[in-house]
Amino acid sequence: MRPATQLIRPKPSSDPAAPLTVPIYETTTFVFESAEQVRQYNEGKLQKFLYSRYENPTVAAVEERLAAIEGAEGAALFSSGMAATATALMALTKAGDEVVCSAAIYGGTLHLLNDLLSRFGVTTRFATLDDLQNRPAALLGDSTRVLWFESPINPTLRCVDVAAVAETCRARNVLSIIDNTFASPINQRPLSLGIDLVMHSATKYLNGHSDVTAGLIAGPAELVDRAGRARRLLGTVLDPHPASALGRGLKTLQVRVERHNVNALAVARWLERDARVTRVYYPGLESHPDHAIAARQMCGFGGMVTIDLAGSYERAARFYDRLKVIQRAASLGGVERLCSLPVLTSQWGHTDEQLSQAGVTRGMARLSIGLEDPDDLIEDLDQALS
After folding, report:
1. Does 84 lie in the same domain as 220?
2. Do the Cβ atoms of 88 and 199 come closer than 8 Å?
3. Which of 12, 14, 283, 290 has the largest CB neighbor count within 10 A?
């Protein structure tokens, strides 16, 4: 699989100024010359901009670039990953429809489906990883409209056979949507494996500098347009200023992710040899239960490493509090090194049963490995585990 960023080709410009970087169109509205122009715009006959809640030149330029990176017909940007998730699900489902979702899923997605969309008549069936891996067809009923899953999964880094899930969904006329945040389009391109829509929290690797909150949907033009129409009504579009920062982050996406891959594998291999760590979760390790799947569908294994300290929250909290170089913060995917405890962040509020279904223990610590020298990170981990 060739690097995704090689797909981007500059277009000839008719603009006499021909800026190298996309300007920030920090404007709410755009000027028309006549009523006829507005009518033609409304009928889709005139390529123009009306209002920045609908579309904006800066945002559109970054969307075009992201579509090229994903190998998609279209892409739409949102104000956050949760805005992208909520808008897509509201655009693609209605009362009486069912969403099948992996039980091992980001906590915000679980609560959105379980606590909010259920109020509007959309039901959710949460599926175990075993069912997703071995019996995906049995999960899909007559009312199932969407199957939503992650791979690699937050925070266990378990991986699902993406092509197999996509094939099963297509055979039953069910839309398959993957949260590809942990992989990034450099390490995994789900559309080429048959998935219908890809979602990213662009806050993470796509931006890469921990200074933008954004979300992305990419896929066939028809599905992206449906999400785009819902975005107009919900007002979940991304502002042009963070869109510009996101576009800047994309310029270094490939080199950043390649360094994340190298550093995380080095840290994971060191942790795997340390007897103080009960278990290390990283799909690049041969000991990972889904290593063969990951090696088949990914170009690199990402920058996320999760450890389990005997399932003990007390041990995990002591380790967390002792870190000196690695910073204690939520989120991931930036150039910095971060650590979080899933039961206090992404899985906060989960019941013991929900944690068990997700494969999460109270002794887990999730590491987002940055671009630093891995020896510095290993030294910090060593002293924190003492």
Report:
1. yes
2. yes
3. 283
Which amino acid is present at 36? E
Report the distance separating Cα 326 and Cα 379, nearest Å.
10
Average pLDDT over residues 345-349: 84
For residues 370 and 130, the answer to whether their CB atoms sit within 8 Å is no
Per-residue confidence (pLDDT) for residue 17, from 0 to 100: 72
User: Which residue, of 233, 250, 267, is where some domain finishes?
Assistant: 250
Domain region containing 291 = 253-385
**What tokens does 231 get?**
């975005």
What is the count of structural domains for the chain?
2
Q: Is 19 exposed, middle or buried (0-12, 13-18, 19+ CB in 10 A)?
A: exposed
Q: What is the 3-state secondary structure (H, E, C) of 191-207?
A: HHHCCCEEEEECCCCCC
E strands, 185-337, where? 197-201, 215-219, 279-281, 304-308, 327-328
Give pLDDT, residue 7: 45
* 222-225 own/partner pairs: CB under 8 Å, 24+ apart: 223/92, 223/175, 223/196, 223/197, 224/72, 224/73, 224/74, 224/75, 224/76, 224/197, 225/74
**Which residues form the catalytic set?**
53, 106, 179, 204
If you search the block for the tokens 């006959």, which residue do you land on? 45
Residues 6+ apart with CB under 8 A from 68: 7, 8, 9
**Domain shared by 219 and 272, yes or no:** no
What integer pLDDT is reported at residue 121 of this predicted model? 97
pLDDT tens per residue across span 231-277? 999 999 999 999 999 999 999 999 999 999 999 999 999 999 999 99
| 150 in the same domain as 109 | yes
Query: What's the average model confidence in pLDDT over 200-227?
Result: 98
Tokens of 368: 């987002």
What tens digit of pLDDT does each residue of 140-187 get? Answer: 999 999 999 999 999 999 999 999 999 999 999 999 999 999 999 999
Taking alpha carbons only, the member of 277, 273, 272 closest to residue 361 is 277
Same domain, 232 and 288: no
The greatest distance separating any two alpha carbons of the chain, rounded to the nearest whole angstrom, comes to 74
